[in-house]
Structures are given as C-alpha cells and as structure tokens.
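ingest -> validate -> predict -> emit
validate: passed (alphabet ok, no gaps, 113 aa)
predict: started
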Amino acid sequence: MPIQEWSEQILLADLQDDPLLSDDINALIETVEARPEFNVVMNFSQVSYVNSSNISKLLKLRKLVTINNHRKLKLCGISTQVWGVFLVTGLDKVFDFADDVTSGLAGMQLDAG
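emit:
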C-alpha cells in the first residue's frame, strides 16, 4: 500500500483488499505513531470486504489519530458492501466519510486551513 505525504499535513493511504488490508492498516498505524502531525485520508476504493479484525484496527487508528494526536481521519471511496458493514455496526456515526479521494482531500484541506 502506498502511503504518501500528500501535503505537509495530510497522509494519503491507498488500501488494498484482503488479505493485504490488515497489513496496510498496521503500516498506517506505525506511520502515524512515528509522525503524529499528520491528518489521514484513507482510500477504500479497492476494498470490497472488511472483517472484525480490520474494524478493530480502524478503531485503533481512529483513536490514535483523532484522540491522541488531535488530528482528522477521513475514509473515502467506500463500496456498497463495506458501507453496509459500517451501517450495521454503527460505525457510520463514528468515522468521517467522503465519496471519493478528491472530495476527502478537499474537505481535509478546508478543515486544516
């Protein structure tokens, strides 16, 4: 998964579908632990399924970014199947979403600016 510094304040993570999704989220957690100054935009456009382990890791990442580091986390490009998981688990009210990466980055820049 490429994690790129999209700007001085924003990391963009292009996630891959399972079985690589868990590794992608773990790598992102490690990056954020080392670089707490970043807001994070996660691109889910290649992800067709999330499991309970992925959700647990996403919650850990959310806590790290939003609570510990006082930064923003935005999830983008969510497929219908993955969105269903967020709805059923109530996580649609926990995470911040954007329709696509462009919207997510623009929203993040507006929030940061």
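The two ends are 27 Å apart (CA to CA).
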